[in-house]
């Protein structure tokens, strides 16, 4: 059986499973559409939340980022997992006790304001639409490689599958589909990692293999990797981070951005009890850990495999001849994600750090005239089985897993957008008298509209799409997270303070990020060079969400202190949400 047929079999079987679940779990009411009826088991919800969270960024991009940046990019692991600790301790149980359907629902009622609800809807839609671009683009990349269709066709196929199980099933259909997607993606991620760990270290457990000896050289794997990349002008893979302030802010931005993501938060409204919300967050961490503990090993081994493929006799010997390049390179060249340019005319593939001035003389001595191979970081996980010459069925698994990761998060984001529009905008702001049947129709229409918009943006990504994760997390961190925290833990913050804080956090964060990463109106251009020398106090645009959050807190409290305190019934409501006494009997439903 050909590799294409194997890929088609695995991907087709997973699609059939998702559609079958959607038909079985079709939503029949608004409560089922928004929160799956509120009766999801905490373990099931933890697995679905893990799939919702582990997007194409986690499955495809994170290991690529770590492979490229080494220890310095381990901040992604710390920030993203740390966010669930915040969710479990500070947000999930209290939001569940409040008993609402959406994040704007909580903000609108807690701050007793239509303006606060509308502001939350705007922040949610901007963040979710931005984030979903990356999911659709990731699905297109996976389809284009494994099903041998164009990236555009892949995005349309992804949109069609999401349409079936999200529009008809709502949260109920998405929840059980995401459980299946988690199983698919975690198997797809770990099985190739086990094979590769065995090949390189003899240890079948990838996290342990990362700290084992390299089979061929007999030295620790990370030491071997450091030696290889150092010989090619790159910074040591295990080198420490020089800008500690930026590292701390970036980690904090990812943590509070995670805790403020609306498509993750709404999952904690689907469980029966307040205690279940906390347990759900705990189970989510367990399920995420299975992938996140494996990712550093996958990244390190992928980087070493790539380097030893290009320099089979070592980095100081001759590089691989282009005509002798392995089949996996030829396959990925067709997608445009691997490119080669023979700059010195020797017909060989020179891969090294030509941006390192200290290495220039060494490169010239070896007859090199610039780096000749460009490898997109996003392909390393998807290409890993082919790089390591693993069986065809493992490649098929990776295909199904990569697509599942993109689709699961896309569905969660689209549901958050749909709920904000149908429930918060239409039901609560525009037409409060709408019937449940009418609201269900509005929810499905808004979901379909969101899918069409996400597909169009995936096909025509704006200039900032490459930095979609930074923008999405920055917005969530600077707008929704502070509002939720103040809504739960401060009786003094009022409607004016919340609105002023969210708008200030949104504007400041957008201006800072787009100043260095390119304005929306001029795609691909920069107002200022995106270098540490130009950053304010050395703070990267990727890290600015934490600063935006601090500004949000400061503005909200300042405005609240000089304006009227919230009504007494709102203060009593905040107290009842925080206080365990009576277990919130009236609200715990």
From TrEMBL:
Protein's name in the database: Cation/acetate symporter
A Pfam family it matches: SSF
Location relative to the cell: Membrane
InterPro entries: Na/Glc_symporter_sf, Na/solute_symporter, Na/solute_symporter_CS, Na/solute_symporter_VC_2705, Sodium:Solute_Symporter
Main location: membrane
Protein family: Belongs to the sodium:solute symporter (SSF) (TC 2.A.21) family.
A single GO molecular function term of this UniProt record: symporter activity
TM helices/strands, residue ranges: 6-25, 53-71, 77-95, 115-133, 153-170, 182-200, 247-269, 281-302, 393-421, 441-459, 465-486, 498-522, 542-562
Organism: Ectopseudomonas alcaliphila
GO BP field: carboxylic acid transport; sodium ion transport
Keywords: Cell membrane, Ion transport, Membrane, Sodium, Sodium transport, Symport, Transmembrane, Transmembrane helix, Transport
GO cellular component: plasma membrane
Domain of life: Bacteria
Membrane protein topology class: Multi-pass membrane protein
PANTHER family: NA(+):SOLUTE SYMPORTER (SSF FAMILY), SODIUM/PROLINE SYMPORTER-RELATED
